[in-house]
Records
---
Amino acid sequence: MSFKAIKYKGEDYRDDRLFVLNLTLGKQGDIPKWILRTYANTFSLRPVSDHCFDSKEEAVRYLKSVEYQVPLISNNGNPLNIPAEVENKWEYFNEWLKQKNLFSAISEMQHCPYHIDERGYNFMKNYAHSEIVTDGFE
């Protein structure tokens, strides 16, 4: 199966977003955590950073504060233009995702390389069940 890439600054991207997030269970050392992992949205889904949380609620709160800020190829590497009067920027962004047939990390669907699932995502839990990639450089 062939996939249509979006070329941007010498890289092949899977869709308009430069980064995507997965929310899943994982471990920090031996301690169970909710992990919000950021990936470069290229075909290989290169891990960029992890943020660990003690609870799903904490992770979702953080997710909603950052996901709408993802840079977009269609906006020259800037986030979605959200009108200033919009109070819930994450909901606005989530509606934009739905219009583009994309999904938020809050769905717990997991972005994955196409060789794992030809759709580029699956519902496998603990996909990122691993040690921390980084302490979070962005």
Note: The chain has a mean pLDDT of 87.
---
Amino acid sequence: MLPIFILLTLLVAAISGITTIPFSVGLLAVITILFKKSWVFFWAFGLGLFLDLILIRPLGYTSLVLTIFVLFVFLYERKFETQTLTFVFFSSFLGSLGYLIIFGYNIVLLQSFVSAAIGVLLFKFLWLKLGPRSETT
């Protein structure tokens, strides 16, 4: 299972270096919602550092944004049913919107929508592959 996530993360990081659509936000939303484990914070921090290196930004900016995004998803999992397509879409959309606004990109609504749609497709794929995860596993 771990090699799949490592390859998926490297693929997302490479694609995020080529295009301005924040695929990493959708990936983190899906991983956070499916697994509900604290290691996702480390995953977000490492992915952010890797993206900072690829995009030639000061180290830590993207890590901070992605880690705060994961924190918000964890905070809202007690108030909402998180393992639904609606929550995945809105969390990916709002996370991507915040990411794009913070880093000063253009056409943020369209890019956020595309990122959220890809996040939903990734969620459906991983949900079928892995099945529902409970907090005890």
Note: The CA atoms of residues 17 and 55 lie 6 Å apart.
---
Amino acid sequence: MSRVTDLLKSAVELNLRYTSTLLHLSKDYLKDANGVINREAEPAPAPAPDAPPAQRPPLLVVGRSGELANGAFAINNPGEREIAVHLVLQGEVDERHVRVEPARLNLKPGEGAIVRILARIDEKLPLEQDLPGAVVAPGLSSQGVPFIVRRLADLPADPAEPATPGPVKAARKTARRASA
């Protein structure tokens, strides 16, 4: 009988060790899982107080000579009072070439509007050169909406020959000769 008692004691001891090991593994697993979940749920670290505000990429307002190029952005009033907004242009392009529509607007609480940047592209603008600017609302925000105006090269004079890469152009010429 002592042999059976020893076997039973050994089995109970084995079960207790197994259960203890399983509990430790489960505890470690839950601790690690909690760390992963909390790390993903944590907000991004706040920028340093002296760090500049994050900037949005500039709107591209591009066109060829004789075109009216445009871009647009949204403006919102998240506040609880109506605001009057007067938009001003800053940058390297003068107001004879660039304007905003609407330049003045009133926004009720929670209301938004779309503002267009319109650029008259002509020969006076330098070719293939970025002219940066920004639309700002003085008194409302220290951050404006950046934009870039660029005059693109004119299209080729022959409308039958669009500006395409060499192999495509050669294939078109061959196709035209074959159909003639």
Note: Strands lie at 59-64, 68-76, 83-86, 88-91, 98-101, 104-107, 112-120, 131-136, 145-152.
---
Amino acid sequence: METPEFKSDEEFFAWTFKKISESLTNLAKRVEQVEEGMQKIPPPGADMVKYKPPGSPAYLNLKELLDLIFRVMNDHEKRFPESSDWAIDVQDKMKAEIQKQVYREIDEKIADKYEALEARLNKIEDKLSE
């Protein structure tokens, strides 16, 4: 916006003060909007994080969520004995499952290779019989 021409210094100062007043009013409105936005941000702390665990009717803040996690962990620790035999038994079962999976994968790869070899042999036999 260009500055208009003025007939006197009084007109210039009146126009300048009006523009300054408008600028201050706009700035005050923007500051007010920023302050309203800042009030919506939760204060630092546990309430900054909200999470709704599956099956929970409400959102939990960070403290409530950690309390829930540790309570569930403690409940599980109480339900299972702390004997090393139990842990070894679980490890043995896991190793057996992993071995079964590896053997299945090896069998599948061998079967694929066998089929390819069988197809090649059939082609060779067909050519020899011609």
Note: Residues 1-41 form one domain.
